[in-house]
Design a protein that fits this description.
The structure is a homodimer. The first copy, chain A, is mainly alpha-helical. The first copy, chain A, has a 3-stranded antiparallel β-sheet. In chain A, helix 2 crosses helix 4 and helix 3 packs across helix 4. The model of chain A has no long low-confidence stretch (mean pLDDT 95). Chains A and B meet through helix 1, helix 2, helix 5 and helix 6 of A and helix 1, helix 2, helix 5 and helix 6 of B. Chain A binds a DNA duplex through helix 4.
Chain lengths: 145, 145
Amino acid sequence: MTKKVKITPSVAEQALIRLMRVGDRLWRESDNRFGQWGLTDNHYNVLRILNGASQPISQSEIGRKMLSSRANVTKLVDVLEQRKFVRRLACGDRRVNLVELTDEGAKFIEETLPVVIGAANEEMKPLTREEQKTLFTLLGKLLEE
Amino acid sequence: MTKKVKITPSVAEQALIRLMRVGDRLWRESDNRFGQWGLTDNHYNVLRILNGASQPISQSEIGRKMLSSRANVTKLVDVLEQRKFVRRLACGDRRVNLVELTDEGAKFIEETLPVVIGAANEEMKPLTREEQKTLFTLLGKLLEE
DNA sequence: TTAAGATAGTTTCCCTGTTGACAATTCACA
DNA sequence: TGTGAATTGTCAACAGGGAAACTATCTTAA
């Protein structure tokens, strides 16, 4: 038996580890779910962002909103465009591509939404509505710097 | 302007989205931190698991504890062994490799621990100790099936 | 006006992790 | 006892995402 390091984790660390664990599990399950439609979680994320935006937005803006590299946004939009869920528009600034949700993309979101919502509710079922709210606000505090 | 889908997210969904966001951020920061020592978060994870185990444990056991595929555990242990942080032992069952932390591995953990702990505390600073505890228990409820 | 710097998107290369196939070994049970 | 099923670790192939280099374009300031 070799030497071991005695570690007594603080509350902060324990909470942090669980956060990472839960997050990891959610990302996996989410990715599985979207795989069923030949997409990644991140692909869907782009669709949701575009659906939520009041106007077409640039790729770099998308990248900023989802913490993804510009390079990756290019790829994501590529496949979404190939699937006709999304359209690239030229605009005044010739460096930028504005991206817009197509009707087909909106239809896709509409059709898949029940599944996504159902999964989320199922996921959070172990918590009461009140607990979900506290969780929400606690996470909010962590998110703002 | 194309058609949009009207979405009014439930509390469950909102909490879930924040969970994924926070988790994602923590994994990124964590990976950055360990990159400084030429390791991945997951490499370090293996070390911590071995340090916490009372005896050498098999690779598949490691994989189970960290939700990683057997194939990946092979690679992780490969580099840790190359770095002399870890040792593979034969055992009764000739299919399995028992893995054990070396003294050098323990030393590495000991030296890097302050940084890791400091980062965790910094991360959770926006929450009071009480809030950290509630967060911890709420996540616990989500983790057990 | 023009030259230096900033910004957007793409491409290429690399790293990490998963899946599936495989060989070696062990287990279950007829 | 012996045969089919399960388990363990490894390898090859593949997919997703990041970083850096590159081009095109725009902005700023002299």
